[in-house]
Amino acid sequence: MVPKVRFALLSLLSVVALSLGVTFVLAGSASAANILANPGFEAGTTGWTCTAVPTAVSTPVHSGSRALSATPTSSDNAQCSQSLAVSPNTAYKLSAWVQGSYVYLGVSGSATASTWTPGTSGYQQLSLSFTTGSSTSLTVYLHGWYGQPTYYADDVSLDGPGTPPTTTTPPTTTTPPTTTTTPPTTTTPPPTQGDLPKHVLTGYWQNFYNGAKALKLADVPTKYNIIAVSFADATGTPGAVDFTLDSGLSSQLGGYTDAQFKADVKTVQARGQRVIISVGGQNGTISVSDSTSATNFANSVKALISEYGFDGVDIDLENGINATYMGQALRSIYNGGGKVITMAPQTIDMQSTQGGYFQLALGIKDILTIVNMQYYNSGSMNGCNGNVYSQGTVDFLTALACIQLQGGLRADQVGLGLPASPQAAGGGYQAPANTVSALNCLARGTSCGSFKPSTTYPSIRGAMTWSINWDASQGYAFANTVSAGLAGLP
């Protein structure tokens, strides 16, 4: 029996809910129950559709006698999903116990929401709440991440009104549950990136004067598809950044104003170019290492996007990176309108998937535009075949790019970052024609040096240079050569 006071409160809530078009699911009510079929995998994978070959293991389990075990590959995130009918405009709660690195839990269809963990030593519960839309079709999914180890899941629960899917078939890895909707695709589609072409050239525009040719933003040639404004400035608030047009640059340009810069952003965007704000650089002191600094960073970048019209953000931090909290911040920025997300790690940062930058790239792979690793200022490094290669060679470019390609990044997320002139870097400069050779080697298997990848990557994304200003000082030798090479790729 419901006490009178509680009954009155429930009546009031019902009126409010009806006015909002939302149904509340009350804990303890008959309708709040797990509506997933085979939620603990006690019947193997019956009721679940998996993109890889999953198994039901007896250890480790969270409860009962079995749990899901699935292993991602370099091209498959080992997703297991279940589609079912739900009530429209209704609040639900989803949870699961998971173990492993980069395990994701989420929903699509009538609602879109997800959560994840970068890694656990034992079982950890993931949970999220969401409200369905007008559609009654919902898909619940679990997956790991490309190139990462096996993950485990158990005791998946979707609490709310509805009916579990019919699952009368024996355990199998290929038979989908009875459903009227199509399960999610087996690979993560490329994120929305502001209508960029298949192959792109990225360049850094210097918001300072150091002897390289001073340029207004609108002076940047259209051969540059992405212009990274260098750099945002750290503030006194942990993680937060700001941007101010440099007075030294302004003086070189005869009084370049903030208003002119904002107008130039619109001008180059109208030409099809994208402008992003770069954070970091050699002297960057920005640290995003906890939830507070992640929120500060995201909010400050979103404020710059709103003020200046930037299309996204570039991460060029060279003093370490926290994959968990920077990933959190970048997702917030992406959801807030910053659709072009790029990175420019040093070579050492991408030697292993265990590195912070590599983990960040894999962790946000679904929203990541491109990683333009700096193939310079590094000396000799290991290639994907275990051999050591010296900077300044085609082999250095192809053998190190291979690490990223084999480590889980899509080819359309890998770019080659080179200095535009000998003055632009302390070491590692090579002729722009070498960049074109490396791109052709990766895309077609032609023009290689001594190293030739075991497969080709026709969708290799492109190249980057530091900087547009140093390139201008060289008569745009880099942009002219490399953009022509990009145009000739598959």
TrEMBL record:
Pfam family, one: Glyco_hydro_18
EC number, UniProt record: 3.2.1.14
Region: Disordered, residue numbers: 156-196
Ranges of Low complexity composition bias in the record: 169-185
Uppermost EC category: hydrolase
Position of the signal peptide: 1-27
PROSITE patterns given in the database record: GH18_1, GH18_2
Segments forming domain GH18: 199-489
Keywords from the named record: Glycosidase, Hydrolase, Signal
Any GO MF annotation of the entry: hydrolase activity
Family the entry assigns: Belongs to the glycosyl hydrolase 18 family.
Protein name, entry field: chitinase
Organism of derivation: Amycolatopsis nalaikhensis
Classification lineage: Bacteria, Bacillati, Actinomycetota, Actinomycetes, Pseudonocardiales
